[in-house]
What does this fold into?
Amino acid sequence: MLLLSSHLSHPGSPVDFLHAVLAIVGRWLAAIAALGAWRGATEPGGRRLAAGALGLAGAAVAVSAVAVLTVSGEALRVGDVPVVIAGSQFPANVTVTTGETLHLDNRDLFRHTFTVADTDLHVVLPASTATRAAVELPPGSYDVICDIPGHEHMTAVLVVD
Ligand SMILES: [Cu+2]
It folds into this structure.
């Protein structure tokens, strides 16, 4: 939870964030309750039932942890230009050749966008999801922003050559 709490002051996409936290907390509570039932049960039958509940709750915790920690979405393909977005930061510079594809890997627990100012290139990046986006812009230098309110500090320069 230490890792998660560092995002608590973050104003962006609280729905995504709360959903992720509540899912984890809920499953942990179920696991703790099942553990208590197992320890409190004295009859062999009740104990077996509680052990089963404990196993299911443990599996749910494991699955939810994997779901949150693993980036889903589109896989990196050969020739893609990898761009990792983490801690509400873009890389300072992204260089790409016209026609190439960016692999935008949002590792945060909330949504971002990869928005190239004054162009049609606007990609929504769901939480913990990677998205591929082709760049068909004329050569030049472009300002990249995240257009989520409160994310004005997220900027980068996209160089198309
Ligand atoms: Cu953002």
